[in-house]
Design goal:
The protein has about 400 residues and is of the alpha/beta class. The chain has 3 domains: about 90 residues, no CATH class; about 190 residues, Rossmann fold; about 100 residues, no CATH class.
Length: about 400
């Protein structure tokens, strides 16, 4: 390999407190882990699925492992796609790249009459019932076992590009990958992140479905312990690379990247909203969206007074701008007072062309601080330029 020999394309974070047995791998082991929890008779299992999980494939796997079970897909109770598009039109806009970020509870997706039918089906079942899809807690608030199925953003983008998924509830498989990404960014990913955050401490198992042929599953308490440990140490996320009109061959040569694309224009590394964290349990790997670290352990990840106001909605692109010598886990961001005071009315406008930093640019005059783990003081490394007025006139927001 020519170039930087120490650039690891597949970094892992080792979970020293648990061995290989803590990570179940393959459908046989995953099904076996669930079966160990099942008593005889009536029992409910909710598999909360991040939008982009292949539900048909998941349903077939469940049916094969549990032939006598009842399977309920909560997305069958959604409002019609046309109704959802009308409901969300102000957030999604008609622009191919701009949108508005607003708070949408998952309940806004559901038709209550259809929901009542699904609840009756669950109630009438006398055996094991699997409730799957995005929004399971709206249909079944207290399942006997709760599983959360994750997919990382990069894998979701690949599925959008090959037309294997659509936006949640919109049935828009033929839309461009760019539009699918924009809609997901402004709407369904925000909804799904809020669901995961609300359930995080009550999840019995986390299921990694980046590869639906070889799933990985970890107990909830084990993963929460691992997340708490990761944010207390320097760590790397799993990078990914993408071609583009201005791309070239430098990264291809330097990092020994696959040559099945015309060029490489993008390198995504240290971007928690986009990248994943690869947890190593012995020789087994479990990939978790890195944004989970920001959402669930913010006061260890960022400054406490910052996270108390902005944590889940603040542009995570900011934390990716650090010197390579500075541990990313110690990057701290503090907003100016005007943003803190008006956060309840804050809305983000974004373009796909500036995926890496547009959210940071909109928030003006933000100071970013990096603190070495052994240092007692914060060092100013960057001040946000006031370029938002050039990109977005005041009346654009």
């Amino acid at each position: 390999m020519k170039g930087f020999h120490n650039y690891d394309l597949n970094p892992v974070v080792r979970v020293e407190s648990h061995g290989e047995g803590a990570c179940l791998e393959g459908w046989n082991e995953v099904a076996g882990g669930v079966k160990e929890c099942l008593p005889a008779g009536k029992y409910t299992v909710a598999i909360e699925c991040y939008p982009g999980v292949m539900l048909d494939a998941l349903r077939k796997r469940i049916a094969a492992a549990f032939p006598q079970c009842t399977i309920v897909n909560v997305e069958a109770a959604y409002l019609d796609a046309a109704v959802l598009r009308e409901q969300f039109k102000n957030a999604l806009t008609t622009d191919p790249v701009f949108g508005r970020m607003e708070h949408w509870p998952i309940a806004n997706y559901f038709d209550e009459r259809r929901t009542a039918v699904l609840r009756a089906t669950i109630e009438q079942s006398s055996s094991v019932t699997f409730v799957i899809g995005a929004g399971t807690q709206h249909v079944l608030a207290k399942p006997d076992l709760r599983v959360h199925a994750n997919v990382t953003r990069w894998e979701l983008q690949k599925r959008q590009r090959n037309k294997s998924i659509c936006n949640l509830g919109l049935e828009n498989y033929e839309d461009s990958a760019q539009l699918l990404y924009k809609n997901a960014y402004f709407l369904e990913w925000r909804v799904a992140d809020e669901i995961r955050h609300s359930l995080y401490d009550r999840i019995d198992y986390f299921l990694d479905l980046d590869d639906q042929e070889i799933p990985r599953m970890v107990r909830g308490d084990v993963l929460r312990e691992a997340v708490a440990a990761v944010v207390r140490q320097p760590f790397r996320v799993v990078p990914f690379f993408d071609p583009g009109p201005w791309g070239g061959y430098w990264m291809m040569r330097t990092f020994d990247l696959p040559q099945d694309v015309p060029n490489y224009a993008w390198c995504f590394d240290c971007v928690p909203e986009e990248n994943g964290v690869m947890l190593a349990f012995g020789t087994r790997r479990f990939q978790l969206p890195a944004i989970v670290l920001v959402h669930e352990r913010p006061t260890l990840y960022w400054e406490r007074r910052f996270t108390s106001t902005l944590v889940r909605n603040f542009p995570s692109a900011l934390i990716s701008w650090t010197r390579s010598a500075v541990p990313i886990s110690r990057c701290r961001c503090i907003p100016c007072a005007s943003i803190s005071e008006n956060i309840s009315e804050f809305r983000i406008l974004r373009t796909r062309a500036t995926t890496f930093s547009i959210k940071a640019v909109i928030l003006r005059s933000i100071w970013v601080f990096a603190q070495e783990r052994t240092a007692s003081r914060c060092v100013k490394i960057w001040k946000m330029p006031r370029q938002a007025d050039l990109l977005f006139p005041p009346n654009a927001m």
